[in-house]
Write a structure and sequence with these properties.
Elements (H helix, E strand, L loop, with lengths): L2 H17 L14 E2 H10 L6 H10 L5 E4 L2 E4 L20 E6 H10 L9 E3 L3 H8 L5 E6 L1 H6 L4 E3 L5 E3 L7 E2 L3
Antiparallel strand pairs: 1-3, 2-3, 4-6, 5-8, 6-9, 7-8
Helix pairs in contact: 1-3
């Protein structure tokens, strides 16, 4: 499968496993899973057919490990705007985590902190490099440092997805450090 086709399938999965399953007539269970065959049938019925082999290749080769494929079911590992409970246990975070954004968002973040916006949780990166890549998707990246351990000690809950993305309900401004 060529790279262009792989990216198209990955974007299709993100849209329908994270945000709009109803658009193609699939229903995610409470944990975000859908049977693979149901997804394949819905994709074909909606005019975007792909094979199980292509699906498995996209899941296996995705650099961010966005999807999990287990026992004939598939789900997105995080990033949902639809309500799902990924069943992730609360865990103690490292001392700091990072968040990549762009300059135009910094003033609002200074004022309100990090909020999940249309997603279920705020996404944080375990390293600065990942945060740079995330922030760069929408312009020149600004990397914020999150005092995660201090947040945890203040009663905030953290979870970590299967692909290493840290999730929390919100990050109040007092736990953020801004560059410069």
């Amino acid at each position: 499968m060529d790279e262009k086709r792989s990216v198209r399938i990955s974007k299709y999965l993100a849209r329908h496993l994270r945000h709009e399953p109803e658009r193609i007539g699939i229903t995610l269970d409470a944990q975000g899973w859908v049977p693979v065959q149901e997804l394949l049938d819905a994709a074909a019925g909606g005019g975007f057919p792909f094979s199980r082999a292509e699906l498995e290749a996209v899941v296996a080769d995705n650099d961010k490990q966005r999807y999990a494929l287990v026992d004939g079911r598939i789900r997105a590992n995080q990033g949902h705007s639809v309500s799902v409970d990924l069943g992730l246990p609360a865990v103690e975070p490292p001392t700091v985590l990072f968040h990549g954004t762009v300059v135009r968002n910094v003033a609002a973040i200074r004022d309100q902190g990090l909020r999940p916006m249309s997603r279920q949780a705020v996404h944080l990166s375990p390293d600065r490099g990942t945060a740079v890549r995330v922030g760069s998707r929408r312009g020149k990246a600004v990397v914020l440092t999150v005092a995660a351990r201090s947040m945890h000690e203040a009663g905030h809950t953290f979870r970590v997805s299967a692909n290493g993305v840290w999730l929390t309900e919100r990050v109040p401004p007092e736990f953020l450090r801004f560059p410069g």
